[in-house]
Write a structure and sequence with these properties.
The complex is a heterodimer of chains A (about 120) and B (about 170).
Chain A: E1 11-12, E2 16-20, E3 24-30, E4 39-44, E5 47-53, E6 63-67, E7 73-79, E8 90-94, E9 97-103
Parallel strand pairs in A: 1-7
Antiparallel strand pairs in A: 2-3, 3-9, 4-5, 5-7, 8-9
Chain B: H1 3-6, H2 23-40, E1 62-66, E2 70-76, E3 85-90, E4 93-100, E5 110-114, E6 119-126, E7 137-141, E8 144-150
């Protein structure tokens, strides 16, 4: 590598909303500047990590007047409860918002049990 | 007089929901804002307005940069649609406003964490150069609004020398 001094990447923590429905947990993460190709969602050892590199090409070569967005990437990690069916987690990306659906395991869903007459 | 005093505020209604019920994440966010403001304002640039322009609303994060030919503004507007965003050039600057609607209207949910801001937002970006509004371009992709304002060469406003009287 010619470039010995590599600039440390600036990491931003994405803001998230998390809500629970009967059958699943839904996590919404704001990652403006990230699309489905530059985002990564990994579940490992009970941890969910979301990551996305921010496309900055259009900001290059210009004299900056104001920089409130300086991050190179977004990253955040969450604990995943064992009530979540990890292989069934799905993710989608739209308008810079990552939506992750974490379904509850079948056996953990609330279930109404029929009572039969004796 | 700061540039902000020159800008008239318009009230665009109250947001649906701001911040969070969790005081700690609100505190965390406020601290981040303070640090951001502190470290970005070490310059002789005009007052760009805080991130929360109007009370009860939120301001998107912006980057502003320029070349000889144009001024570029980018703003983070995740979760919004181009039809929810308005960009106007007023006398004192570029006004980015709109509304972030809550995606979810379902009844049976239990919220665990709300860090997003929903509702109306407004941000004024002071523009010091003369720009050609007819050639201005804006596009919205991946939750990022990018605006390019080409500069125009204009004769300086008629200059007037002020006489200084001897006392």
């Amino acid at each position: 590598m010619d470039n010995k001094v590599e600039r440390q990447k600036v990491v931003a923590v994405p803001y998230v909303d998390i809500y629970e429905k009967d059958e699943e947990l839904v996590l919404l993460a704001d990652m403006p500047g990230v699309d489905e190709n530059s985002a990564n969602v990994v579940v490992e050892n009970g941890l969910l990590t979301i990551e996305g590199s921010i496309d900055k090409e259009l900001d290059d070569g210009l004299y900056p007047l104001r920089s409130e967005r300086r991050a190179d990437l977004f990253r955040r990690t969450f604990d995943v409860s064992d009530a979540i069916d990890t292989p069934k987690i799905t993710a989608k990306m739209k308008h810079g918002v990552l939506t992750i659906k974490l379904p509850r395991r079948e056996e953990r869903k609330a279930r109404k049990i029929e009572i039969s007459a004796a | 007089m700061s540039i902000r005093d020159l800008i008239t505020r318009r009230d665009r209604g109250m947001p649906v929901k701001t911040g969070s019920d969790d005081p700690f994440s609100e505190f965390h966010r406020e601290m981040n804002r303070l640090f951001d403001d502190f470290f970005t304002d070490f310059s002789i640039t005009p007052d760009w307005g805080s991130l929360a322009e109007t009370k009860g609303s939120f301001g998107p994060k912006i980057n502003v940069s320029e070349t000889d030919k144009e001024i570029k503004v980018s703003a983070e507007l995740p979760g919004m649609d181009e039809k929810d965003i308005s960009v106007e050039l007023e006398d004192n600057g570029l006004v980015i406003s709109g509304e972030r609607k809550e995606e979810n209207e379902e009844k049976n949910e239990k919220w665990h964490r709300v860090e997003h801001s929903y509702g109306s937002f407004r941000r004024v970006v002071p523009i010091s150069a003369n720009v050609d509004i007819d050639k201005a371009k804006a596009d919205f992709k991946k939750g990022m609004l990018r605006i390019a304002l080409p500069k125009v060469k204009k004769e300086p406003e008629s200059r007037k020398k002020i006489e200084i009287k001897a006392g």
